[in-house]
Amino acid sequence: MLVTYLEASRDLCETNSILFGAAVAVCRIIGAKVPMAGRATTQSSAIPAWRKRIEDRIAKARALIGRLTSFRSGNNRPRIMRTVRMAFAGTNISLSQPDITQKLTERIDDLKQKIAAWGKRIRRFSERSRRFNQNRLFQSDHKRLYKSLEQPKVCGAGQGPDQADIIAFWRGLWSEPVNHSEGPWMEVVASQDASVTPMDPITITPEDVAEAVRRAPN
């Protein structure tokens, strides 16, 4: 049947349509999925929708804090005034009342607390996701996990210190005699420990080591 349609084809475009139709028919018969035109096949983002919503709230809250702070500093431009009125919409607070500065401070502090709570929720999710991914990677590929945990090497730029300076520095610390003054508390401790009976010396033989190693688990 396909040969009949191909023989009757007049150009390459029609041949392409015939082959495409035949391929779709075969896929439907065997149950294979065919991506149709107009359907999005892009992979969904790994960032959950609730996190995007929280990040949007944080961005809007920070912008509002900036507007309120600007108004508290004396900026009375129409755009700032409109934002401040919207921030206090639905309340009994008027911009002309005497304690408006205190109300602005309270509103700013409230927004900062909300931002801190939202950010803490995102950090908890990120930390949980990191631990989950590390545990899953540990079960599948130890080497890859350990490689991901390695810190990048930081090499200092420039010329290193002179060898003679290094030797002189450490020789000044360890080779020069120093008279330390420990203070009277050392004498007090020594007098308190004078009555303590010293412990008998212990001699460890190779047989003791062999016996301990023999009993130890692998």
UniProtKB/TrEMBL annotation:
Keywords: Coiled coil
Domain of life the protein comes from: Eukaryota
Keyword Coiled coil in record: yes
Coiled-coil positions: 101-128
The protein, known as: (apollo) hypothetical protein
Source organism of this protein record: Parnassius apollo (Apollo butterfly)
